[in-house]
Every structure is written in structure tokens, then in C-alpha cells.
Specification:
Blueprint (H helix, E strand, L loop, with lengths): L1 H21 L6 H20 L7 H4 L1 H11 L5 H10 L5 H10 L12 H10 L48
Helix pairs in contact: 1-4, 2-4, 5-7, 6-7
Length: 171
């Protein structure tokens, strides 16, 4: 069950983040607030079902960072430092893309300046990020089967003759 929910939450993360990276109309402060609220609801659900150790919440980390990036101030060099220290799961390309797509919804917000985006790129240039922008939503985590040793010893097993396993020898 834990593995299923980890996979499901990864797919939620990948599809949502990819939509955020491809659609200018959703890159705003209010979307960041809405995303963060919805993610917290998913995290509370996991906690309520005792699935916190499944790793499902960790798969949402890039989406959480993207929501926080949409909510942060984006003006000063201190803001740039905060963004760089906060966004460790997002690649440089993803951070820059979100900042480029950021669209103010009301008059209290401002567009992200080109100088600010260049400052972010300069601060993040030593990262060794993969070159891909979008997440692979078809990625599958490997299935893990727990090992449960049997109390039955192999020398106590009787093989019926009807199975025709004469080629097996007890050692």
C-alpha cells in the first residue's frame, strides 16, 4: 500500500509541476497559495492513514518548492539567496522557467525582472542539474517485496512423488 501511494503521489507531483512549467496563466502568487494548501491537505491525509514513512510526502518536495517559489518576494539579492537555498529539489532550468512565467494577478504584485533572473542563474551556475525541464510522469519506482523468513526448514519438507521431481536430491 505504501509503495502504491508513493507512486501515486509522484504522479500527482510530476503532472502538476509539468503543468506549472508549461502554463503561464497558473504561475502566480495565488496559485502558489492554492497549491501549498492542497499539498498540506494531502500530507495531513497521509498522516491520518499512517503512511508518512511510505516516502509519498518526499515525492511532493519539488511541487512544494515551486509553490513556495511562487509565494516568495523576487526583488533583492537576499531574495535570490533565499530562493537558491530553498529550491534544492528543483533544477536551475525549472526555477528560471517558473520565474519567467510568473504572472502578476493584481496590482500589488510585480513581474520578475530580467536582472533578478540573471542573478538567480549566476548563483545556481555551479549546480550539476540534469538538462531536462519536465518531470517524467511515467517514471515507476521499483517494487520492493519484504523478506519474511519461513519457520519451516528445507530438510523437513516432503515432496510427493506425483510432482515428478525425481531430479531433486536432498543434500
Amino acid at each position: 500500500i505504501q509503495q502504491v501511494f508513493k507512486q501515486l503521489f509522484y504522479m500527482i507531483n510530476a503532472v502538476t509541476l509539468n503543468n506549472l512549467l508549461l502554463r503561464k496563466d497558473v504561475c502566480s502568487w495565488s496559485t502558489g497559495m492554492q497549491l501549498r494548501f492542497n499539498i498540506s491537505q494531502l500530507e495531513e491525509w497521509l498522516h491520518g492513514k499512517n503512511l508518512q514513512q511510505s516516502g509519498a510526502a518526499k515525492t511532493l518536495k519539488p511541487l512544494i518548492e515551486a509553490a513556495q517559489l511562487l509565494q516568495l518576494k523576487k526583488k533583492t539579492s537576499e531574495d535570490a539567496d533565499a530562493i537558491c537555498s530553498l529550491c534544492t529539489s528543483l533544477t536551475t532550468q525549472q526555477i528560471v522557467k517558473i520565474l519567467n512565467l510568473y504572472t502578476p494577478v493584481n496590482e500589488f504584485e510585480e513581474r520578475v525582472t530580467v536582472a533578478f533572473i540573471r542573478n538567480i542563474q549566476k548563483l545556481l551556475q555551479e549546480r550539476n542539474d540534469p538538462p531536462q525541464l519536465l518531470l517524467d510522469f511515467k517514471h515507476m519506482f521499483p517494487v520492493q517485496f519484504p523478506y519474511n523468513p519461513s519457520a519451516i526448514t528445507l530438510d523437513s519438507i516432503h515432496l510427493p512423488a506425483s510432482l515428478n521431481l525425481d531430479f531433486l536430491n536432498k543434500v
